[in-house]
Amino acid sequence: MIGFLKGNVFKKKEQSILLDVRDVGYEVFLTVSDLTQLKENENVLLFIHYKQKEDGTSLFGFMSEETKDVFEVLIDMNGIGPKMGMVILSAMDKDMLIASIQREDVFALTEIPGVGKKTAQRMIVELQDKLNHYVIDDTMELEMKIEKDNRTALTDAEEALIFLGYSKKEIDQVLKKLLKRDKTYETDDLIKLALKELGK
Questions:
Q1: CB 29 within 8 A of CB 16
Q2: How many CB atoms lie within 10 A of CB 170?
Q3: How far apart, in whole angstroms, are the C-alpha atoms of residue 16 and residue 105?
Q4: CA-based nearest residue to 71, from 43, 54, 46
Q5: CA Rg, the chain, in Å?
Q6: CA angle, corner 40, sides to 35 and 43, nearest 5?
Q7: Cβ neighbours for 51, distance < 8 A, ≥ 6 positions apart
Q8: Alpha-carbon distance 99 to 73, whole Å?
Q9: Which domains does the chain have, with CATH numbers?
Q10: Per-residue model confidence as pLDDT tens digits over 105-132
């Protein structure tokens, strides 16, 4: 087993790097954020997940040991392999993923490419207990709560306006206009303001 590799970034590829460790080149797959941070000829230490397959081996690297731990919790879930795990952690950083699961935010999880509603719900059920020991930054927690509350208010307002006979197209136009003025609304206020705009 390989715990970590320390070496020089010999070459960057689309999804991986060639890491020169004492004149031996290892191909290591990285998340988008880690790949973006690294430059060729830069020295780096990567925490490694080693995957043995029939057609060879794959190395998945992480600049943070915690991110590697979260990755291994993810791929322990049935239906999520290492490649999908990298997609998830490329679309959403470790803290945001943990917060989304802890807050049971299905909508946020379904914004990850390849994650549908059923998979998002299963992630919440299967991973919540395994990730609940991670402490999320208070600022991020507050931001995610506001974002989730806003989505709920928008959904509720849209349903109410559709019930009143307005089309989804005109409702969306008005709601987007209102959100440009202010990012936070209660459902009742949003409906009142939208009706005022629609009545013009």
A1: yes
A2: 13
A3: 30
A4: 46
A5: 22
A6: 85
A7: 57, 58, 59, 60, 82
A8: 15
A9: 4-62 (2.40.50.140), 66-131 (1.10.150.20), 138-198 (1.10.8.10)
A10: 888 899 899 999 999 999 999 999 998 8
